[in-house]
Amino acid sequence: MQYFTELLNKEMLDSLKKNSRQKPQVIFKHSTRCIVSNMTMHRIDQKEIESVDADFYFLNIIRHRDLSAQIQQDFDVWHESPQVLVIKDEKCIYTNSHSGIRLEELLEVLQEQPI
Predict the structure, then answer these.
(1) Cβ neighbours of residue 82 under 8 Å, at least 6 residues apart?
(2) How far is CA 69 from CA 36, 39, 72, in A?
(3) Given Cys at both, which of 28, 70, 75, 110 links 58, Cβ 3.0 to 4.6 Å?
(4) pLDDT in tens, the chain (115 residues)
(5) What global pTM score does this model have?
(6) What is the largest CA-CA distance in the chain?
């Protein structure tokens, strides 16, 4: 998870939304109690994301259920875990969950975004 910043509070979420006007922001909602979530996190945490101009965050939903609920409300997405969201211009432009989360697809979405 070395490329991911932990999303810890509402202020960070507000900053993430603001920063999404400049470049895509990726949120990985992660449950430390879920084996599927752990396996998915390891599939995403690869060097390929280094080359993408985006900021990557992970949210521990066990610790920060309130932020997960805020994300659901702010971006009009159903809560799932594991779940990946791409935020651009303060809107969720892509989401996927569970085995639908594929690094290749995520990179395609990110590379299509104008900076």
Answers:
(1) 28, 29, 30, 31, 34, 36, 37, 40, 41, 97, 98, 101
(2) 21, 23, 5
(3) 28
(4) 467 899 999 999 999 999 999 999 999 998 888 887 777 777 775 667 777 889 999 999 999 999 999 999 999 998 888 999 999 999 999 999 988 888 889 989 998 866 5
(5) 0.90
(6) 36
